[in-house]
Amino acid sequence: ISKHIDCRIVNPHTRKEVAAHEVGEIWLAGESVTAGYWQKPEVNQETFEATILDEAGQPSQVHYLRTGDMGFIKNGDLYITGRLKDVIIIRGKNYYPQDIECSVEMAHPAVRKGCVAAVNFADSEGVTVVLEIKKKSLDKTLNFETIRTQVKEQVAADIGLPVDGVYLLHQGRINKTTSGKIRRRKIKEQIERGQLVCLTHPNRRTVIARNYVKNGLDVIRDREQRGQLIRYSSNLLNSMITTTKSTVKF
């Protein structure tokens, strides 16, 4: 942490500093911190003019920027654990979606790393998981129900939370920002609106077609012919692999 920055770790609800090494919201003050947004006084008061309360409940003289990031300080280094808006609160306890998503990634080898989202709905004391399946893992031997079961068991063992639903997606289908970050709130909206396009099990014809493409490319050396086969086979596979808009939880 730069000596020119006043960095504090604060409980976002009590607005008091947390104990050493404890996770809280990161608040910043210093000459390099902007004064606020143009002509947005209400937002500026909440975000750029935050004050820390002491033990007597008195506000600090210094105004801080509320970053919205959660983290902790250890040995003078700042560690960021996630975003405040993404924190899942169940029965008064904070759960970080990154921890749940990491647990899901370890549940089954077909789960694509970095392509998992964990969200919570207001009427539930569990989490809902959305994940991508590796393209190379999609064959007739892959059992979707086994994946769902193992995800639920893994999260229960690691995090201690029940999993309400597990949605399986094609590789590259999970909602991300342009920089590759998981858009959890957008994914939650997709579930609520029934807009999540889920994966169904590939049928036998799809497996045969994939093998045909692989074997065909092995023997065709001409670049133009290979390109034609790839385009034709891609259209063929897209017509065979069926998807469905799911509005129910599994």
Automatic annotation (TrEMBL):
Gene3D superfamilies from the UniProt entry: 3.30.300.30, N-terminal domain of ligase-like
UniProt GO molecular function: ligase activity
Domain AMP-binding enzyme C-terminal: 86-196
Keywords of the record: Ligase
Domain of life: Bacteria
Ligase recorded as keyword: yes
Similarity-based family: Belongs to the ATP-dependent AMP-binding enzyme family.
PANTHER family reported in the protein's UniProt record: DISCO-INTERACTING PROTEIN 2, DISCO-INTERACTING PROTEIN 2 DIP2 -RELATED
Name of the featured protein: Acyl-CoA synthetase/AMP-acid ligase
